[in-house]
Amino acid sequence: KNILTGVIQLNTEPGDLVLDPFMGSGTLGVVCKHTKRNYIGMEVDDKYYQIAKERIEHLYHIHTNVLLNLK
């Protein structure tokens, strides 16, 4: 997570949009929220989609509608 934080902070500004076409468990989404970036994540595997969705919703007490399940 620390490496991703550095990469995001060096390559984007707060408020920028980060697209993650392979979101897996949503680590990049968590980093984007911590660093005040907007985030769109996509995942084809239902298992990982649900993990990422629940992780981000639980962590920030929000209902996400920008995580895309492409299956």
Describe the fold and architecture.
Helix content is 46%, strand content 18%. The protein has three helices and three strands; from the N terminus they run H-E-H-E-H-E. The chain has helices spanning 2-11, 27-34, 46-60; strands spanning 17-20, 38-43, 67-69. A three-stranded parallel sheet has the order 1-2-3, with helices on one face.
Secondary structure layout plus pairing:
Blueprint: H1 2-11, E1 17-20, H2 27-34, E2 38-43, H3 46-60, E3 67-69
Helix pairs in contact: 2-3
Largest sheet: 3 strands, parallel
Tell me the span between the first and last alpha carbons.
Answer: 27 Å
Measured as a percent range, the helix fraction is 40-55%
How many alpha or pi helices?
Answer: 3
Beta strand count: 3
Report the sheet-strand fraction: 15-25%
Evaluate the radius of gyration. Answer: 11 Å
* Approximate shape: globular
Average of per-residue pLDDT values: 86
Oligomeric state of the chains present here: single chain
Strand order of the largest sheet: 1-2-3
Low-confidence stretches: none
Give the H and E element order.
HEHEHE
Backbone structural class: alpha/beta
Features:
71 residues, 3 strands, alpha/beta, 18% strand
What's a concise summary of this model?
This protein has 71 residues and is α/β, with parallel strands linked by helices. The chain has helices spanning 2-11, 27-34, 46-60; strands spanning 17-20, 38-43, 67-69.
